[in-house]
Amino acid sequence: MSAQRERQALYAGLAGPGMAPERFELGAGIVLRKTYAHVMAPYLAAFRPAEPGKPHPAPWKAVSGGLGFDVALELSVPPDLDPPNPFDQAGVLWFLVALLRLRATPLVRVPVIASHPFADIPDLPFEPRFWPIEMEPQYSCPVPDRVRSSASSVARRRNCASV
After folding, report:
1. Is residue 2 part of a domain?
2. What was the pLDDT predicted at 5?
3. What is the pLDDT of residue 148?
4. Which residues, given as ranges, of the chain have pLDDT below 50?
5. Domain range for 108
6. What is the DSSP string of the chain?
7. Domain count within the chain
8. Is residue 152 a part of any domain in this protein?
């Protein structure tokens, strides 16, 4: 069973250090541009079980913690892009982000993909769609130059979570 989904533009929000270009056109309508959005997911707690199909009843309480990301760049793929198999629009985004990670920094991440440009979202008369992607925390462990031997890489793997 194959479902044909409606094609729409996708806007990957990129977060990470050293986000610089104002606008960079990659061809075929794919654009990397500077933007800003603070995407947050605060934690809320409910204290009584919900009835099936209904929200949890009050009281709800905001609690400490949650997630938040500063989206600094937007990578957009137009709806009319027709990439070769096996890629689709999302695959094109992932391929380009992988290249950015290899060339710029492995700390580039995509917390969300949006249905509309981030700069347009505040003025939309409807609720846009966000697809959470890389919402889990990333950890890195800086390594001084004097410790870059293969023996020390085993110790780094033991002591540092992966990026």
Report:
1. no
2. 55
3. 42
4. 1-4, 143-163
5. 10-136
6. ----PPP--EEEEEESTT---SEEEEETTEEEEEEEEEEEEEEEEE-SPPPTTSPPPSPEEEEEEEEEEEEEEEEEE-TT--PPTT--HHHHHHHHHHHHHHHT-TT-EEEEEESS-TTTGGG-SS---EEE-S-S--------GGG-SHHHHHHHHHHS---
7. 1
8. no
